[in-house]
Write a structure and sequence with these properties.
The chain is α+β, with helices and mostly antiparallel strands. Helices cover about 40% and strands about 20% of the residues. It binds zinc ion.
């Protein structure tokens, strides 16, 4: 890191501390030649993640879109905005840690549902309603039974319920 004043390549760190709610590290540095001070920030490099939509179109993962979809599902529930932010943070972090830079919108939807399931039943069912596009009461009861920890469809239901759940994302995660 060259000094912004004299371009000297060497400096010493006077102080390091966490900044931007832990998303970066701020370092106060002093140039070894001119002794002037400057600040640098160190951040995680976010690699863009591509989302493959149901219609096979691709777009870049958009954090704020995902956030809006979850906010809508959590309206008038006790789920706080901090909790919603945390869900989005978790999902974004998980996507960043993956080897593959592609994810389907269906996968993201399921990631949201996995989190909402333990947080708020109303929000879970609302999100599932939009995202799974229920075709009938059976889809709805399948989702409810998932809340109770049963596999969707249940074994004895499988025979007369040959059609899998139809997946479709709300516009927010599309
Ligand atoms: Zn300097």
């Amino acid at each position: 890191m060259h000094c912004p004043f004299c371009q000297h390549p060497n400096n010493r760190v006077l102080e390091s501390r966490s900044a931007e709610s832990g998303r970066s590290i701020r370092r106060r540095r002093e140039c070894l030649r001119c002794e002037r001070r400057f600040t640098t920030y160190e951040r995680i490099e976010y690699v863009p993640v591509t989302v493959i939509k149901r219609n096979q179109e691709q777009e870049l993962f958009d954090r704020s879109k995902l956030l809006r979809g979850i906010v809508r599902a959590c309206e008038k529930t006790t789920v706080s905005s901090q909790v919603i932010e945390a869900i989005v943070d978790d999902i974004e972090a998980e996507l960043q840690q993956r080897q593959h830079r592609e994810v389907t919108s269906a996968e993201i939807g399921e990631m949201v549902l996995t989190q909402l399931r333990t947080i708020n039943e109303v929000a879970f069912v609302r999100f599932a309603c939009v995202y799974r596009q229920f075709q009938g009461i059976r889809d709805f009861t399948d989702t409810l039974s998932q809340l109770q920890g049963e596999p969707p469809g249940g074994r004895e239901n499988q025979a007369d319920h040959g059609r899998p759940l139809t997946y479709s994302l709300p516009s927010a995660v599309r």
